[in-house]
Design goal:
- By secondary structure, this protein is of the alpha+beta class.
- The protein has 5 helices and 6 strands; from the N terminus they run βαβββααββαα.
- Strands 1, 2, 3, 4, 5 and 6 form a 6-stranded antiparallel sheet that branches.
- A hairpin with a 2-residue loop joins strand 5 and strand 6.
- It is globular.
Length: about 130
């Protein structure tokens, strides 16, 4: 079995937020069997005028390559309604970004956002065990 690589994803939506987040989670669960999700967090939009964003972090260990993952994520975004024309009008049904793949961190500006740090920290807290 190939070695597993840690993958951290950032999910965000500013329209039909709850429905689109649930849809994206379902599609990601079908793609990655052991994926874990943070709580959801409402945030003000950054650098665009729009409704509030609903955000979430996902963490999974995968044997898939980065290129294959990015292609699958774009497909999930499209299934949630994302299109170029909507994006031009600041409508984001679903945005999924790879924040980390193995040791490589991407989207450096996102790592500086308080809600991203908070949600990632939540995912790194040890899970409760039943004694």
């Amino acid at each position: 079995m190939p070695p597993l690589t840690k993958l951290i994803l950032s999910l965000g939506s500013n329209t039909g937020q709850k429905e689109n987040m649930e849809n994206a989670e379902s599609l990601l669960r079908a793609l990655f069997k052991q994926i874990r999700f943070s709580d959801s967090k409402w945030t003000e939009p950054v650098s665009i005028e729009s409704d509030l964003f609903l955000n979430k972090i996902a963490v999974v260990y995968t044997a898939h390559g980065l290129q294959q993952i990015c292609k699958a994520l774009r497909n999930i975004e499209r299934k949630c309604g994302r299109s170029r024309s909507l994006h031009k009008n600041n409508v984001v049904p679903m945005d999924i970004d790879v924040l980390q793949f193995g040791d490589a961190k991407m989207h450096a500006e996102d790592w500086e956002r308080g809600y991203i740090r908070e949600l990632i920290q939540q995912m790194e807290e040890p899970e409760e065990t039943i004694a």
